[in-house]
Amino acid sequence: MPLPPEDRQLSPYTGWTREHWEATADDLLAAVRPYASPGRALVGLPGDRPSWSGRRSDALEGFARTFLLAALRIAGAGGADPHGVLEDYARGLDAGTRTPTSERDLADGDRESWPPITDRGQAMVEAASIAFALRLTRPWLWDRLDGAVRGRVGRWLADALRRTPNDNNWHLFPLSVGGFLAEAGIEEKEARAAVRRGLERIERFHLGDGWYTDGRPRAFDHYNGWALHLYPVLHAHLAGDAPLLAEYGSRLSAHLAGYAHTFGGDGAPVHQGRSLTYRFATTAALWAGTLTGHTPLPHGTTRRLASGALRHFLDRGALDANGLLTLGWYGPEPRLVQPYSGPASPYWAASAFTGLLLPAGHPVWREQELPAPAEIRDTVLALPRPGWLVQSTARDGLVRLHNHGSDDQPADTVLPDNPHYARLAHSTATGPVHEGPADNHLALLVDGRPTERGRIHPLGAGRGWAASAWRPRAAGQDLPGVTVTSLTLVHGADEVRLHLVTGAGAGTPVTHGGWAVAGTQTVAGPAATARADGRLTSELRGLHGFTDAGTTVVPEGTAFGPSALLPLLTGTLPGGTTLLACAARLTRDDALHPLDAVGLTVEPGETWQLGLSWPDGTERTVRLAPEAVAVREDI
Q1: Mean per-residue pLDDT, 500-511
Q2: Per-residue pLDDT tens for 593-628?
Q3: Considering only CA atoms, which of 420, 40, 416 is closest in space to residue 214?
Q4: Per-residue pLDDT at 635 exceeds 60
Q5: CA distances (Å), origin 518, targets 94, 511, 522
Q6: In terms of Cα–Cα distance, which of 434, 599, 592, 409 is closest to 513?
Q7: 505-529: string of b/e by CB count within 10 Å (b at 16+)?
Q8: Of the candidates 365, 379, 350, which has an alpha carbon nearest to the alpha carbon of residue 20?
């Protein structure tokens, strides 16, 4: 991808400017044009893995998501369209809505017609992108369309007002369509009702402090930023609705205060949750905060975080040889792709270009970049609403997210663990293991098979700690009478993980995985130590209750590389109530104290009294009982 020269005076951390964002948008749009149908209504990107919605829906996705990218680029340029992109999308609006069809797989010779919007159908999602794109480009596209075309497009979109969405962020798709149709004078009453209904539905998901769960009781992930905040705030901004923007903008600002700490010094977002193939869409909420004036971040920090994330992926192979975004993280990675995703799904990343709506003279583009929060100082930040503890270290820019509250489990059943939610920790430099012993997980072995974490019950998060309780599951059922109370404490780059296991039988084997590090080459060190590409090191040391330590090879690697190693502790439970404790570390810093220097004292009882100490004199006192935790910092 040809790009302008770097500007290290204006952007000392990334070298990137607004011109780099514009050039990237132009190149992404140019790369998809050869795959558009003759009438430009469908953009069928190559790939041998269609989504569960079928190839026609996937090709609509290609149209809709790239249309949003084009709209952000052109609206940000005041309507300038030197490449004639809007003409293509105008033709597509005409051809796609002439004869909508339920045929799914483009097998009938019709290469133009869009699928209809149905209950919980993917076309509803894409209608929202089309509606926002039309809203952004209205003076240059919609207002110039033939009246008959506007009528057909309006009728196709209006079906989103009457169809049932999934009970999660999907409530915002009829809202987005309704916002445009109301302004365009199409079915205004029903359109405004859809806006109100969408806002009412997501109110149930807001748990406070700017944190939403995505429909399920505890499904915290990147959908907070790129959907649950972005859509209401962008709608309120475009509608000029000051009271609505004040309400949802204040939530966004509160969210960004913590969210900004989840980007690594290398630009990477935390690798956690679903739809990770959307990659730099993780920056959309950052831009939305600045666009609407609802952000706690300095302008230089916003641009540094956003440009860092965009460059992070483009520098690491997110594009294939044809300039297309792949289904994956860096390169293709099928294991993190959900069945609802097709070849064009990664273009949800279009929302990352929301920053282009800010004019070239805006301070976010003109002020010098500032360091990311993870680059300024070592930070430990408790986020009690999602049950997370964010830990970052400035010398290596790594961010670790300790998870004691997000499990993505439905309210009425418990599904098998999703490794992108169920782990004790996630980071900006590691991905979960999909085969073999699990990373960042305590497992009891039942008939030789590891238990799962299941539903997570948060017990709190405070200064340097977070805790939860859970019931190990085997063969789809909770182990009768068994409860694990887990507590993570962090200091600097160090982590201490404490688990009080109650009710497990004597002789039950246990394993505990650390951070799985991956790259092109990995090397095992002494005890439970692994190193990837000569830089990233994972260590795990037993402090109490474990008997053996080592490393194991991760089959097929992780999203971060084909070669991966996992530090692993093992032991055997004596029965009754048992404490298992270990120290863990993920670092690129070779100048740290030995992990063995972390001290632990243990006094068993109905409530276990534990003392932790670090070489710098920091001490913590912990009281641990089944499903109850208290932590005190002594020094």
Answers
A1: 98
A2: 999 999 999 999 999 999 999 999 999 999 999 999
A3: 420
A4: no
A5: 48, 20, 7
A6: 434
A7: eeebebbbbbbbbbbeebebeebbb
A8: 365
Say what the pLDDT of residue 373 is: 98
Q: Which amino acid is at 212?
A: Y
Please tell me whether residue 227 adopts helix, strand or coil conformation: helix
The secondary structure of the chain in percent helix, strand, coil, rounded to multiples of 5, reads 35, 25, 40
Question: Can you tell me the mean pLDDT for 350-376?
Answer: 98
pLDDT tens per residue across span 70-120: 999 999 999 999 999 999 999 999 999 999 999 999 999 999 999 999 999
Distance in angstroms between the alpha carbons of the first and the last residue of the chain = 52
Quote the tokens at residue 430.
């590691």
Strand partners, 465: 462, 489
1: pLDDT strictly greater than 90: no
Q: Comparing C-alpha atoms, which of 85, 207, 70, 214 is closest to residue 132?
A: 70
CA distance 215 to 204: 8
Q: In this structure, what token pair is assigned to residue 487?
A: 């507590």
pLDDT at 634 > cutoff 70: no
d(CA 397, CA 536): 12
As a whole number of angstroms, the distance between CA 193 and CA 420 comes to 36
Residues 6+ apart with CB under 8 A from 235: 175, 176, 179, 195, 241, 244
Q: Can you tell me which residue has the tokens 């209608």? A: 127
Is there a contact between 295 and 321 (Cβ–Cβ < 8 Å)? no
Give the mean model confidence (pLDDT) for residues 259-273.
98
Q: What is the DSSP letter of 208?
A: E
CA distance 584 to 498: 11
Contacts of 42 (CB under 8 A, 6+ apart): 36, 56, 59, 60, 62, 63, 92, 96, 106, 111, 112, 114
Name the phi and psi angles at 540, rounded to 5: -145, 125
Find the Cα–Cα–Cα–Cα dihedral 381, 382, 387, 389, rounded to 10°.
40
Element (H, E) at 96: helix 85-96
Question: Would you state the structure tokens that stand for residue 87, as one six-digit string?
Answer: 């003409």
